[in-house]
Design brief:
binds zinc ion, alpha+beta, 82 residues, 4-stranded antiparallel β-sheet
Length: 82
């Protein structure tokens, strides 16, 4: 199950680091460390429920990042050079 709110992120062992921007698409993201210490960009989405109430939902930014493929390719190229 993927973490869906800040509370569930914390319960899943994530630790908040800072607010920032995706280096691929410049969308605002929050950086969190996951339970293995990996720095992960998280997008906080505002979801409007059917009754009109708003809910925050967090997802891994790479799931929605329009530059995710390019970033992954860059990471692959970088690791090939090493
Ligand atoms: Zn992005």
């Amino acid at each position: 199950m993927s973490p869906e709110t800040r509370k569930t992120l914390e319960d899943a062992g994530y630790a908040y680091e800072s607010n920032g921007f995706c280096e691929g698409c410049d969308e605002p993201v929050e950086f969190w460390y996951d339970s293995t210490g990996l720095r992960t960009p998280i997008s906080i989405l505002q979801i409007v429920e059917s009754d009109g109430s708003k809910k925050e939902r967090s997802i891994n930014h790479f799931a929605i990042c329009r530059a995710a493929r390019r970033i992954r390719n860059d990471l692959r190229k970088r690791s090939k050079k090493d």
